[in-house]
Amino acid sequence: MSENSSLKMDTPTNISLVGESVTESIEYKTISVFLVLLVCGVGIVGNIMVVLVVVNTRHMRTPTNCYLVSLAVADLTVLVAAGLPNISDSLVGYWIYGHAGCLGITYFQYLGINVSSCSITAFTVERYIAICHPMKAQTVCTVSRAKRIIAGVWAFPCIYCMLWFFLVDIQENRERRVQCGYRVSRELYLPIYLIDFAIFYVLPLLLAIALYGLIARILFLSPLPHHANATSATGTTVRGTCKDTAEGGKKGSRPGRPKSSSSSRKQVTKMLAVVVILFALLWMPYRTLVLVNSFVATPYLDAWFLLFCRICIYANSAINPVVYNLMSQKFRSAFRGLYRCQEQEVQRRTLSVVNKKVKMNKQTNK
């Protein structure tokens, strides 16, 4: 969305951004474009890597990781649909994507945001079942069931977000510049925002607090059965192909010493809890701002604070792969394995080209 409407879209008001002269300054544009490019660039690369390592590495295809792939795709949608259009809008100062772009980009922004929230809820419930009900988890927490749940996680927001096709449109501001903005009155928007706020922020966090509290009681206060074998984001099988050697390093190398079931569960649960905490913290400035602006006569729309809120949103979509790399040995090894596989593929292609040239030169000399 445009600079004057990207975060105003969830602000129940159609007034222009306070301090528009600030957004036109070279200083603001430089900082805004740099930060958005940096965060979005890191996030796009990181989330693509998450998808690739889970899809291409067999022992990484677990129910929990399926939900993390769904979260990564949703975060990619947010970064591409929300972050990149803001760069062009900051540079040129007006909306360049037309009416169809306004509707489509807004739709995918909120689709990515809502699917992210639903994916977090899904893996939170999956972790609760896996830890607190390990016997039931053997039949409930499966990859096939996770895929069906993910289909529902995407289907519901896809339908729900169609509402935005009727809420936004291109319009001209006081400077006669075209923008993509909110077109209905504040009274109509307020209940829509409050429902969205409750379904995709408050309820997921309350559920996460309750379930992770129960999980913590089992993991840290009660001894786990030695034979428990709940589904986790870590795997036990290491394959010999390039795609599946992420954990063992180079092909034929000896895999690291496996961790106990309890230690593995704690590691995965801590990682997912951090993802939930970051979701709560990084969305809090924006959600708080919009909640306050919903009930005050004069909304607070300081340009620098709006930029801070927007960067927090993009950071939430970009930081998860960093968390996986820092807190999960499996993901860290898988990321390295993906790099090695790509490096080997480049070497094979280069060698193939060289061999073809050598053969052609031999034939020519004959």
UniProtKB/TrEMBL annotation:
Residue stretches making up the G-protein coupled receptors family 1 profile domain: 46-324
Subcellular localization(s) per the UniProt record: Membrane
Residues that span the membrane, as ranges: 31-55, 67-87, 107-129, 149-168, 188-215, 267-284, 304-326
Pfam families: 7tm_1
PROSITE patterns: G_PROTEIN_RECEP_F1_1, G_PROTEIN_RECEP_F1_2
Compositionally biased intervals (Basic and acidic residues): 241-250
InterPro entries: GPCR_Rhodpsn (IPR000276), GPCR_Rhodpsn_7TM (IPR017452), TRH_rcpt_1 (IPR002120)
Biological processes per GO annotation: phospholipase C-activating G protein-coupled receptor signaling pathway
Cross-referenced CDD domains: 7tmA_TRH-R
Region Disordered, residue ranges: 232-265
Range of residues in the leader sequence: none
Keyword Transmembrane helix attached: yes
A Gene Ontology term for the protein's cellular component: membrane
Coiled coil spans: none
Keywords tagged on the record: G-protein coupled receptor, Membrane, Receptor, Transducer, Transmembrane, Transmembrane helix
GO molecular function, one term: thyrotropin-releasing hormone receptor activity
Family: Belongs to the G-protein coupled receptor 1 family.
Function text: Receptor for thyrotropin-releasing hormone (TRH). Upon ligand binding, this G-protein-coupled receptor triggers activation of the phosphatidylinositol (IP3)-calcium-protein kinase C (PKC) pathway.
Name this protein carries in UniProt: Thyrotropin-releasing hormone receptor
Source species: Paramormyrops kingsleyae
